[in-house]
Design goal:
Elements (H helix, E strand, L loop, with lengths): L61 H14 L1 H35 L7 H43 L7 H8 L3 H32 L5 H25 L3 H8 L3 H12 L3 H36 L4 H42 L1 H15 L19
Helix pairs in contact: 1-10, 2-3, 2-9, 2-10, 3-4, 3-5, 3-7, 3-10, 5-6, 5-8, 6-9, 7-8, 9-10
Keywords: Membrane, Transmembrane, Transmembrane helix
Protein name: DUF7847 domain-containing protein
């Protein structure tokens, strides 16, 4: 009790001032920083995302996708690199043979120019060009088949690797072979979408050229340049929109048209991000593939040019070019397929809360101590948290 205050009488309290709201934001009147730094031991840090396999089970960034693709290759190198090497070799050999014949023809012309001034020289030159284009057509046809099959198999391997499980090439093929017709259906529809504008434009140019005078060639060339620029934009747009169609076929069991609709829907709302990641991945793998293939291609070209006219030289040239093409494509195929597959998973996590489904399944699999084959069924859209 304060001195001088009578006993039993409560001291009078001064009236309370109305509370004043502290100013927000930075400024001279702010008594403390608007966002004081966290001190060690204070605050709540969320636990790291569950990562049973090659990626954390949360929405992914570009670094997560690149790292996950590298882990996919390292976790199952026999299946991933072995299948990619076979596919790359089958696609590279016809092209290498055609290039070897063309290089041999060019080398012979440089070594003996007079022999190519006759009609026989013209026939030899025509033969070399035909071999080059013929080899290219065969190579593209083979690539159409083997890359389609490889994409399906690698997507199935990736679907299991997300949970930390490994799968052999034989088992992946057994699971994918029933989806092969649908995969070819997607690739065929994509080919139609990409080729129809080219065919229409070529026919139009031919028709205009037949009725055009020499003074009209300038605007025809300008029209061609505009078409090339427009077609590049056209190609990139549809290539991005249907980037997830193969994954939808293999992992969700959809048909060709339904898979393309599914891909279009997943890309919607995040087109530029998907486009940027796919484009950057293509540039990166193209650079690395060039570094791997250029030395062999250059060596084969020089060897064929200076040793033209010999069958042994042509064979060695074809082998060197094929080795270079195989090394480059062996890296390109799985990396592009891996990034596309992980980007598909990322879009499902962001748009369908699919990460919750993956986390729940991963916890159950960790409790059991192994990854069951039924994990493949989790990719079906009926398991999405927002389905």
């Amino acid at each position: 009790m304060p001195y001088g205050q009578p006993y039993g009488q409560q001291p009078q309290q001064p009236p309370l001032a109305p509370p004043q709201q502290a100013p927000y934001g930075p400024g001279p009147q702010t008594p403390y920083p608007p966002h004081p730094p966290q001190q060690p031991g204070y605050g709540y840090m969320p636990p790291p995302a569950l990562r049973p396999g090659i990626i954390p089970l949360r929405p992914l960034g570009l670094g997560d996708m690149l790292d996950g693709t590298i882990k996919l290759i390292r976790s199952n190198p026999k299946a991933v690199l072995g299948l990619s090497a076979v596919a790359a070799l089958l696609a590279s050999v016809p092209l290498a043979v055609g290039q070897a014949f063309l290089i041999d023809t060019m080398g012979s012309a440089l070594n003996d120019p007079e022999s190519f001034s006759s009609s026989s020289g013209d026939l030899t030159s025509l033969y070399g060009v035909a071999a080059q284009y013929g080899g290219s057509l065969v190579s593209y046809a083979v690539q159409f088949v083997v890359v389609t099959l490889l994409t399906g198999v690698l997507t199935r391997i990736l679907g299991r690797a997300v949970f930390g499980g490994n799968i052999t090439a034989a088992e992946a093929w057994r699971l994918v072979k029933a989806r092969i017709p649908a995969l070819f259906g997607v690739v065929g529809l994509m080919a139609v979408i990409m080729l129809v504008p080219v065919i229409v434009f070529v026919l139009l140019i031919v028709a205009l050229s037949l009725n055009a005078s020499s003074g009209d060639l300038g605007w025809l060339a300008g029209l061609t340049i505009l078409f090339v620029i427009g077609y590049i934009c056209y190609y990139l747009f549809f290539r991005t929109r249907f980037a997830f169609a193969s994954a939808a076929v293999v992992l969700e069991g959809r048909g060709p048209v339904d898979a393309m609709r599914r891909s279009w829907s997943l890309v919607s709302g995040d087109f530029w991000r998907v486009f940027g990641i796919l484009l950057l991945t293509s540039l990166l793998v193209g650079l690395v593939a060039g570094i791997l293939s250029v030395p062999f291609t250059l060596a084969g070209t020089l060897f064929g040019m200076f040793g033209a006219g010999s069958a042994a030289t042509t064979i060695v040239t074809a082998i060197l070019i094929a080795i270079g093409g195989t090394l480059g494509a062996m890296f390109t195929y799985p990396f592009e397929a891996g990034v596309a597959g992980l980007l598909y998973a990322d879009r499902r996590m962001r748009s369908e809360a699919f990460d919750l489904v993956l986390q729940t399944a991963a916890i159950e699999q960790q409790r059991q101590g192994w990854v069951h084959a039924s994990a493949d069924e989790l990719w079906h859209p009926s398991n999405s948290a927002r389905s």
